[in-house]
Amino acid sequence: MYKAVKVVKGNGGWGGPLILKPTEQKHIILNVCGGVISPISERIAELTGATIVDGFKTGVADAEVMVAVVDCGGTARCGVYPKKRIPTINLLPSGQTGPLAKFILEDIYVSGVKELNIQLYNGEVTEVADEVVAQEETPKERTNSAPRQKVGFLTRLGKGVGGVVGIFYQAGRDTIDTIIKNILPFMAFVSLIMGIIVATGIGNLIANTISPLAGTLPGLLLISIICSIPVLSPILGPGAVIAQIVGVVVGTQIGLGNIPPQYALPALFAIDPQVGCDFIPVGLSLGEATPETIEIGVPAVLFSRVITGPISVLIAFAFSTGLFK
Q1: Closest-CA residue to 57 (of 309, 302, 298, 230)
Q2: What is the pLDDT of residues 180-200, one digit of tens each?
Q3: What residues form DSSP beta bridges with 30?
Q4: 3-class SS at 58?
Q5: Residue 155 pLDDT grade (very low, low, confident, very high; cuts 50, 70, 90)
């Protein structure tokens, strides 16, 4: 028999609480955490009796998903499932952030969750079926009303210009909001990391470790292969934080003269094969791929990165040759 649980936000988290109870139709815990089953998913399954499905290996219909468990640092995954109105648990303490921030609402999303934030719920759970009621409206006869007036050219032009201006105005608001909530905080974070690296002398250690690899073609190929390992790439992918930090470090070393500048472009491709690997099952789901396609597509894309990663480094190296003399 299925039981209900209450999930509250963890330390530094946002949203919730969520009351979750499996039904015969919605009984799947969709685990999308870099190919690893999260202890949070296991805890919810243990308490509720729901079934865990690894989103990196198996696809399921949205109608069967009781809750999605993700480990998103604030990019796409944390907003994809709330957009579908699927209850979402984020292991990381990310709030309303990312390009889908407007869909991340407290009634459907909770973050920073640990095992201690999940408890059995003894209250009553009211199940509300998702119904779409289509009503056909028949035009009523216009009686005792004034005759409809024709809309003039200037009126139509004014409405059209107003609509265009409104779209651009809202786009500007969304852009500023994204910059304030996502880009500026990350810039501050990277600046902090670089300050710590420089002040503590770790920069010299990184330079001595990375420079021999990033300063040679075989070294860049080795970095590319390591970043694209199918088991490792989904773990390095969330938020692309690892790639961005390493990119800043490599750029700093190029600026200091420890790495030749012609290796900048190959280094970029060397540290990026894992980018987006955590999003593959979500992307296939958004494309309405069948479960069989997701099961085959996820490992296919992951293994393809092992091939395309080093190839992209070689292509970038070829195009960079002779650019800096």
Answers
A1: 298
A2: 876 787 678 667 766 776 677
A3: 53, 68
A4: coil
A5: low
The pLDDT of residue 139: 42
Q: What is the pTM of this model?
A: 0.60
Got the DSSP string for 95-164?
-S-STTGGG--TTTEEES--GGGEEE--S------------PPPPPP--S-PPPPPPPHHHHHHHHHHHH
Residue 57 per-residue DSSP state: T
* Distance set, CA 178 to CA 55, 171, 173, 245, 250 (Å): 28, 10, 9, 20, 27
Q: Cα(274)–Cα(287) distance, rounded to whole angstroms? A: 21
266-310 tens-digit pLDDT = 888 888 888 777 778 777 776 777 778 888 888 888 899 889 999
Q: Hey, how many other C-beta atoms are within 10 angstroms of the C-beta on 16?
A: 22
- Give the separation between CA 153 and CA 247, rounded to whole angstroms: 55
Mind telling me the catalytic residues? 72
3-state secondary structure at position 54: strand
CA 60 to chain centre: 19
Give the Cα separation of 228 and 223 in Å (integer): 9
Burial class (CB in 10 A: 0-12, 13-18, 19+), 100: middle
